[in-house]
DNA sequence: AAACGTAGCAACCGCAAATAT
DNA sequence: TATATTTGCGGTTGCTACGTT
């Protein structure tokens, strides 16, 4: 939705709990262009901070909280807008698997993205998939599905979009792993990807130009995540951070590999789960687009069956 | 064409932590 | 040190656009 299309005529309801404001006079609801300009101009001159007094001094009939939120989530010049890229999706899934709903913390690793945006992405896209699969988004089943299906698939899509040719593709039979021209694991997904993306190249602390350095550059993501770019494998030095709680013995590197057989769950190899047609459909999942159309009807059905048999 | 349902997202709320007085 | 105020976070709500019937 074009936010500029949002009504600017919302009524001025009673104010929220900001204690020191003249509550009878505060505006709420969507921001008008004039309000945006006032806030931008004031911050350009005086800087951020002290939001309550800022709101007053800028002549805005808004709470300090509202001003802060508007600035951080929308008006700030380094806010990135638009579709969440494949790389960002992968990162969100990974970081959420580690930290849960720590949106602001996750957002620190997605330069230009706000916690609100990531939270919305999670609620609308990820939870939608859980709903499709008829399982709880916090369930182990769904987390495993993300981990062993969705995330590897995203990796492959990123690689494909970047022109990296895995020697074993998702359409080959199970058990193969993606390798690079050097013979090393292309992604090292099972070994490296799930380890900390906290690396020496990017941290929130050194990300002053983060939106540029990250951008949509798959190569940057490759640096960040250890995804080989242009057939160059990336040093495992990128994965020196803490390990994620993904303990277990697995060697999955792509969706065509065997599903996990973990804690009593008896996943089959994907070749048994999906027939050739499904495999083809799986392969055909919109490479290059940035939507989350990772499941098709058959996949959902099969997964639902898997879950219902547990 | 209208009614209805759903998705996406900006904005609000309440709470807790941090900071100022 | 105690109290007040501000900031930041995660959860939730409500509005609009869009798709479906």
UniProtKB/TrEMBL annotation:
Gene Ontology CC, one term: nucleus
Coiled coil regions, renumbered to chain: none
Keywords: DNA-binding, Nucleus, Repeat, Transcription, Transcription regulation
Biased segments, Polar residues type: 1-19
Annotated spans, Disordered: 1-28
Entry's Gene Ontology molecular function annotations: DNA-binding transcription factor activity; sequence-specific DNA binding
Location in or out of the cell: Nucleus
Stretches assigned to the HTH myb-type domain: 23-75, 76-130
Domain Myb-like: 23-75, 76-126
Alphabetized Gene3D superfamilies for the sequence: Homeodomain-like
Pfam family, one: Myb_DNA-binding
Record's protein name: Uncharacterized protein
Source species: Beta vulgaris subsp. vulgaris
């Amino acid at each position: 939705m074009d936010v500029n299309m949002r009504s600017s005529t919302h009524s001025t309801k009673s104010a929220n709990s900001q204690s020191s404001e003249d509550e009878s006079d505060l505006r709420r609801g969507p921001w008008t262009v004039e309000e945006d300009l006032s806030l931008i101009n004031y911050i350009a001159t005086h800087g951020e901070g002290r939001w309550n007094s800022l709101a007053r001094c800028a002549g805005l009939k808004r709470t300090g909280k509202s001003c802060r939120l508007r600035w951080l989530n929308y008006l700030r010049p380094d806010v990135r807008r638009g579709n969440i890229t494949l790389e960002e999706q992968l990162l969100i899934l990974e970081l959420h698997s580690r930290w849960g709903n720590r949106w602001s913390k996750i957002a620190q690793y997605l330069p230009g993205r706000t916690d609100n945006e990531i939270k919305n992405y999670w609620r609308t896209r990820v939870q939608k998939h859980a709903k499709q699969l008829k399982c709880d988004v916090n369930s182990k089943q769904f987390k495993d599905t993300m981990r062993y299906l969705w995330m590897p698939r995203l990796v492959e899509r990123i690689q494909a979009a970047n022109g990296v040719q895995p020697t074993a593709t998702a359409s080959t039979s199970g058990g193969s792993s993606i390798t690079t021209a050097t013979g090393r694991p292309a992604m090292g997904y099972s070994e490296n990807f799930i380890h900390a993306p906290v690396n020496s190249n990017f941290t929130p602390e050194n990300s002053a130009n983060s939106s540029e350095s990250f951008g949509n550059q798959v190569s940057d993501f490759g640096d960040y995540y250890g995804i080989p770019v242009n057939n160059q494998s990336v040093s495992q030095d990128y994965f020196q951070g803490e390990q994620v709680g993904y303990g277990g013995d697995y060697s999955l590197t792509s969706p065509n590999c065997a599903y996990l057989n973990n804690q009593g769950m008896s996943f089959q190899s994907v070749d048994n789960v999906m027939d050739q047609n499904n495999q083809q459909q799986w392969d055909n999942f919109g490479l290059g687009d940035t939507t989350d159309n990772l499941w098709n009807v058959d996949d959902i059905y099969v997964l639902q069956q898997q879950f219902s048999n547990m």
